[in-house]
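Two proteins were folded this term; both appear here.
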Amino acid sequence: MPYQKTNYISFSLHTEPVSRQADRHTAFKKAIKGYLGRANHNFSDFYNERLCVAILFAMRAGSPVTDVDNMAKNVLDALQKYAYEDDEQIEHLDAIRLNSGSTDETFIGLRIAVTGIASDEDVIWPVFNVTHISKPGVGPIDLTSYL
């Protein structure tokens, strides 16, 4: 298991994910913060650390497809000041949207781990390759002509 040697916390939010673009995104964040205030998860080992966050969005069958990045941003914003000081601490983010296989079951699964990915360590691989692999005949991306 990749997280055996890593300090992590795992929990789930029994709620339907809400996109940051949705009208109710503010209510969603307030509800998550309310839950976190009641649940008393111990985030003390993570609050001021560099982090790896994995988010699983288990959607009910027939749910409208929502952009996973917009759902993730809303969850990350809701966790701020509870699980961590600021979401700038997140150096590694995995977000997965899948069908829960149920017409009434939906939840958000979370795993937060301390990471050293910026130090060439990762919570999954012992060494993280940070070397660019060039493609012959293709140079760097230049934005100038697109501005």
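Next, the second protein.
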Amino acid sequence: MNQGVFPILSEYRRLLTTVLRENNWKDTGTVFITVRAGRNNEAGVPATGDNYSNWFGDWCRRNKDVLGLTDEEAEQAHLHMLRHSSISFELNNGTDLKTVAKMVGHSNAIMTDRRYGHVYDKSLKAASRRFNVLYEEAQKSSEEDPAL
């Protein structure tokens, strides 16, 4: 978890304590609760995976234009997309496969490679292209100055 999240969660916990007290809701010790009744719950109870999925899907549909999503993409949006995006981001920005596997809780890098290998392959190709550019620049330099 990013270090910047801790102060935010601390402030959130302070506000949550106030909300629980004002609504006479039981403090179950969970981080997130529902604040109003919805499709899957009553107000004041611990939020579930379905709550998060529904909230995320609703948010994507409401903000599809800002997010650059088509109607179909917004309808198919699901919370797990964030996990996939963060893993893809890490791999495409040079975080090694073993570290990413550990970060996301995979038992080994093979599991991560099977699911996200296509992303990793793109990173390898990009690294190869960068190496080729550096190699060509070095070749030019040595042709211009044989002492190099």
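The chain has three domains: 1-47, 51-78, 80-148. The first helix runs from residue 5 to 23. These notes refer to the second protein only.
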